[in-house]
């Protein structure tokens, strides 16, 4: 899956998967078949973006500390 700016593919995918699971639960008798989500794409996307932002923050801090120590020498 490739995210294109402004298309919200991950959100549509989440909606489609949830609808399919709900439909399957209605069509199967209770206690005969179980279903569960193994991954949540929108949550994964938000988690990866947050990690990337932390990486950028860490790089900026390392560069600033390096520049600071270079000036002291």
What's the structural blueprint in terms of helices and strands?
Elements: H1 9-27, H2 41-72
Written account of the structure:
With about 70 residues, the protein is mostly helical. It has one domain (about 10-70). Helices cover about 70% and strands about 0% of the residues. The chain has 2 helices and no strands.
The whole-angstrom Rg is 22 Å
Q: Write down the oligomeric state.
A: single chain
Number of strands: 0
How would a crystallographer describe the biggest sheet? none
The count of domains is 1
Classify the secondary structure makeup into a structural class. mainly alpha
Elements, N to C (H/E) = HH
Global morphology: elongated
How many separate helices?
Answer: 2
Kindly, what is the distance between the CA atoms of the first and last residues, rounded to a whole number of angstroms?
A: 49 Å
Helical proportion, percent range: 55-70%
Mean pLDDT: 80
Beta content comes to under 5%
The low-pLDDT segments are none
Give a short summary of the structure:
The chain is mainly alpha-helical and 73 residues long. It has helices at 9-27, 41-72.
Question: What tags apply to this protein structure?
Answer:
73 residues, mainly alpha, elongated, 70% helix
């Amino acid at each position: 899956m490739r995210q294109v700016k402004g298309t919200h593919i991950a959100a549509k995918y989440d909606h489609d998967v949830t609808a399919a699971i709900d439909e399957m639960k209605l069509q199967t008798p209770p206690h005969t078949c179980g279903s569960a989500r193994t991954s949540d794409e929108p949550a994964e996307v938000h988690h990866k973006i947050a990690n990337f932002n932390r990486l950028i923050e860490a790089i900026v801090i390392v560069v600033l500390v390096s520049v600071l120590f270079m000036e002291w020498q």
